[in-house]
């Protein structure tokens, strides 16, 4: 090699000149200038120094190598049976000998023991002994090459890089030598693949170097190719390695001087977040316990559960606390939060009051509203009672008012409560001829609970027996005090029939609204409440919504409870199309995906995607809640389960024209439950009776109730075929009576006892055939042979049984009437005495009704 200057040498090995000069000085070569030339001996001296300094072995300057890797390669050949090709006519058969070359390479590494111990600790302890260290498994690889033999150059253990350059690199970075893959960061020299996050390398074989010549590099590429195609190479390697992995792990752990897993010394208390509904399995997983533990805990609490059973939040939290953890209510991770920013904000402007008309049945609510609206709603109602909530916006000369017409029947209690919560003012209609009645009081309570002011309309003033002062006095007891009695409530005498006083009533309402300064934001996406919903045969789902803030426009994307859709059509109370509806405006919306529930909040959302996401989330939440409710009944405590098993239930499916009626009927029917019988509403919905309803009724043995709806053609056919019972009604009382009668049929009949007669024992004889025979005289009624008897002594029953014989003058007789003597033998009873009484009675079963 030509003489090289220090500067050139530094450039060739890519180290700064001054650093090279310093290292040369440390190696004893002596300080010289950058321009001086450096000899090969000096380079060798520098290399030796650097190897010593960095613990390198296998150098000519280090007589005791610290690690030796032996690689052995065995090449063998396999001959596959010759394949005889079909010879051509007259040709000799050609034989192709398939020769497969198998190259097996084995590698075994020996490391000084103290070097192994030193890994990770950096404590140098020199030792002269070389001890073979057992490797996890001799590294071997099998390369099969076919069909022709491959001339395999021996793998090159040492790189071709100049020794000095390598030594210099070693001084700068952790050594990456083929024979010594032992950087401190690696837990074991033989297992560089253990480095986290790195793709596993092939055994202890160091990573192939780019400059590695010949077959080694080619083979590596080949392996890489296999990996890319389907990971075969890695997988096969992984299986090979998996046998040695535990050892390698332990080695790594020991090498690092610490355990990866520490056994907990005491119980771990976890904070467990519990959502509204959670399965037993999920709860167990959150507490890091087995599901069986949770089931056991539930059993201790008196509840039987299965691993997939959904628990409600309260039960789940109890289980968590019971098992020694801390329960926390999980924040609902719902897309509902997306809605928060949708609420319209800004300065509110005056809006029309929302007024609910409440009162006892037939006190004239609908007639009053009818007069105000100048329409004939009352005339069109079946049974002449209002059966679903209606919302009407009326413009009077004194201003606009939105009316919610709520039914007065007790069945609609829930609906009325909802009306009071929505409303600004309640008009309490009390018939002057009838006075305060139960539902008048209920209406007062609802209004008070909702903090809504009352205006009392004393109706039917045209009737001769009208007593308005009586109404005022009766209402004082319920804390509703008229202005002229020193209170704050306006009482307006009216006649819904003649229209007298209606103007004054509206004035009173608008005055009250003025005092309340009702305001709402008109700009922005609309927010409101669904006040009625139904499935219309021609128009699909129709929801009556009351806008509370913002403006609902035609074409808006509306989200109502678990349903959504574009508001294709907006209609007012006169079925006239609207382009938009502002606050306090009731409007019918067409275009929803389904029938929402009455009372659901509706929002206008930006796009369909968001609406769909929230709607699906709500549907899922509703399903889960209903599931956990349904499971809560049989899953309750064992005693109540046993009790429940004895209660007979009548299954009912309700189909109604509007959601409010279906809901009201369901709640009324559920209210019929007693200790012995109950109603189970299998399903309730809006729309005509379909094939699905009939099939459901068939499978559950339910009674189908159609309220203002009929079965379609397919369902009718199926009804005929299956004999499923269906009842059509348009008056709610009739539905209740019908179901009451059916429930009565489920009641066990009552067993009534009737005393038929009494006989007094005058003498006792002994007969060989019957034992003691009582000689009696029938003092009252009749004694019949086939009826049960009781023996009374001193008016106390001492025996109950049957007659064995009833005789008169030695003749068996069927009955003996009062004043007649007879002989009575009691079956299996011989203790009869003179003075006893024998009572004859009969049991009859009586049908019961609810
Ligand atoms: N004489 C007289 N009859 C009235 C008056 N208001 C209502 N009525 C009658 O009272 C009956 C009941 O009236 P509705 O308006 O249906 O009573 P309601 O309170 O709406 O009844 P529900 O819908 O069942 O809650 C009807 O026959 C009306 O004609 C009135 O001011 N004077």
Report what the structure shows:
There is one protein chain. Among the domains are: 51 residues; 55 residues, Orthogonal Bundle (Arc Repressor Mutant, subunit A); 172 residues, 3-Layer(aba) Sandwich (Rossmann fold); 101 residues, Elongation Factor Tu (Ef-tu), domain 3 (Beta Barrel); 101 residues, 3-Layer(aba) Sandwich (Rossmann fold); 97 residues, Elongation Factor Tu (Ef-tu), domain 3. The protein contains 24 helices and 39 strands. It is of the alpha+beta class. Strand 21 and strand 22 form a beta hairpin. The longest helix has 25 residues. The chain binds guanosine-5'-triphosphate (GTP). The site of guanosine-5'-triphosphate has 22 residues, from helix 13.
List the keywords:
protein biosynthesis; 39 strands; Arc Repressor Mutant, subunit A; alpha+beta; binds guanosine-5'-triphosphate; GTP-binding; GTPase activity; translation initiation factor activity; 850 residues; 31% helix; 29% strand; Rossmann fold; single chain
């Amino acid at each position: 090699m030509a003489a090289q200057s220090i500067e050139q040498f530094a450039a060739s090995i890519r180290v700064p000149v001054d650093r090279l000069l310093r290292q040369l000085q440390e190696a004893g070569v002596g300080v010289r200038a950058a321009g001086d030339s450096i000899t090969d001996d000096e380079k060798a001296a520098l290399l030796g120094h650097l190897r010593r300094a960095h613990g390198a072995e296998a150098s000519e300057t280090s007589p005791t190598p610290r690690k030796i890797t032996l690689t052995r390669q065995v090449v063998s050949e396999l001959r596959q049976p010759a394949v005889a090709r079909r010879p051509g006519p007259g040709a000799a058969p050609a034989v192709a000998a398939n020769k497969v070359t198998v190259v097996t390479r084995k590698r075994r590494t020996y490391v000084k023991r103290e070097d192994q111990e030193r890994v990770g600790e950096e404590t140098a302890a020199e030792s002269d002994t070389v001890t073979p260290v057992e490797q996890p498994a001799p590294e071997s690889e099998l390369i099969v090459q076919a069909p022709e033999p491959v001339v395999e150059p021996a793998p090159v253990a040492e790189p071709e890089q100049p020794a000095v350059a390598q030594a210099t690199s070693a001084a700068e970075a952790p050594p990456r030598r083929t024979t010594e893959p032992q950087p401190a960061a690696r837990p074991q020299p033989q297992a560089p693949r253990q480095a986290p996050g790195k793709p596993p390398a092939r055994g202890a074989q160091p990573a192939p170097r780019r400059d590695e010549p010949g077959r080694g590099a080619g083979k590596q590429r080949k392996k890489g190719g296999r990996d890319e195609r389907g990971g075969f190479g890695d997988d096969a390697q992984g299986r090979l390695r998996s046998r040695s992995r535990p050892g390698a792990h332990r080695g790594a752990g020991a090498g690092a001087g610490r355990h990866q897993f520490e056994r907990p010394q005491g119980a771990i208390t976890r904070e467990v977040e519990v959502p509204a509904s959670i399965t037993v399995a999920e709860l167990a997983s959150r507490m890091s316990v087995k599901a069986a533990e949770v089931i056991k805990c539930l059993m201790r609490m008196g509840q039987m559960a299965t691993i997939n059973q959904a628990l409600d939040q309260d039960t789940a939290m109890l289980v968590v606390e019971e098992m020694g953890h801390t329960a926390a209510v999980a924040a609902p991770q719902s897309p509902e939060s997306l809605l928060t920013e949708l609420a319209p904000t800004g300065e509110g402007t005056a809006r029309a009051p929302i007024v609910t008309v409440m009162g006892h049945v037939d006190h004239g609510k609908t007639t009053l509203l009818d007069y105000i609206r100048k329409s004939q709603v009352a005339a069109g109602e079946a049974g002449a009672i209002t059966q679903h909530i209606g919302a009407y916006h009326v413009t009077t000369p004194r201003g606009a008012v939105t009316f919610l017409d709520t039914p007065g029947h007790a069945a609609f209690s829930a609906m009325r409560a909802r009306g009071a919560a929505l409303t600004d003012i309640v008009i309490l209609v009390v018939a002057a001829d009838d006075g305060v009645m139960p539902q008048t009081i209920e209406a007062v309570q609802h209004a008070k609970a909702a903090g809504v002011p009352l205006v009392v309309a004393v109706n039917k003033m045209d009737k001769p027996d009208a007593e308005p002062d009586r109404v005022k006095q009766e209402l004082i007891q319920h804390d509703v005090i008229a202005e002229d009695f020193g209170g704050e409530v306006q009482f307006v005498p009216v006649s819904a029939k003649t229209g007298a006083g209606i103007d004054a009533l509206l004035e009173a309402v608008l005055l009250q609204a003025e005092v309340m300064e009702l305001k709402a934001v008109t700009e922005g996406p609309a927010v409101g409440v669904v006040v009625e919903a139904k499935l219309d045969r021609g128009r699909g789902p129709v929801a009556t919504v009351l806008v509370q803030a913002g403006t609902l426009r035609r074409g808006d994307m509306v989200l109502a409870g678990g349903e959504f859709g574009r508001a294709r059509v907006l209609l007012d109370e006169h079925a006239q199309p609207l382009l938009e509806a502002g606050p306090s405006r009731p409007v019918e919306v067409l275009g929803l995906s389904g029938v929402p529930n009455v009372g659901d909040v509706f929002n206008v959302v930006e796009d369909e995607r968001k609406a769909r996401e929230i709607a699906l989330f709500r549907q899922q939440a509703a399903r889960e809640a209903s599931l956990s409710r349904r499971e809560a009944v049989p899953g309750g405590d064992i005693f109540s389960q046993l009790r429940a098993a004895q209660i007979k239930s009548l299954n009912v499916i309700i189909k109604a024209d509007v959601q409010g009626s279906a809901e009201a009927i369901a709640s009324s029917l559920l209210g019929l439950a007693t200790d012995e019988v109950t109603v189970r509403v299998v399903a309730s919905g809006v729309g005509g009776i379909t094939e699905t309803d009939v099939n459901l009724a068939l499978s559950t043995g339910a009674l189908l109730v159609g309220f203002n709806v009929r079965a379609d053609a397919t369902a009718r056919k199926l009804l005929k075929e299956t004999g499923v019972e269906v009842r059509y009604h348009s008056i709610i009382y009739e539905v209740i009576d019908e179901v009451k009668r059916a429930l009565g049929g489920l009641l066990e009949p009552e067993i009534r006892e009737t005393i038929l007669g009494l006989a007094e024992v005058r003498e006792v004889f002994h007969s060989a055939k019957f034992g003691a025979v009582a000689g009696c005289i029938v003092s009252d009624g009749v004694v019949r042979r086939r009826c049960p008897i009781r023996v009374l002594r001193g008016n106390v029953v001492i025996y109950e049984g049957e007659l064995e014989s009833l005789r008169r003058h030695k003749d068996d007789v069927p009955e003996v009437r009062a004043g007649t003597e007879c002989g009575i033998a009691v079956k299996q009873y011989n203790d009869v005495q003179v003075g006893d009484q024998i009572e004859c009675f009969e049991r009859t079963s009586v049908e019961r009704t609810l």
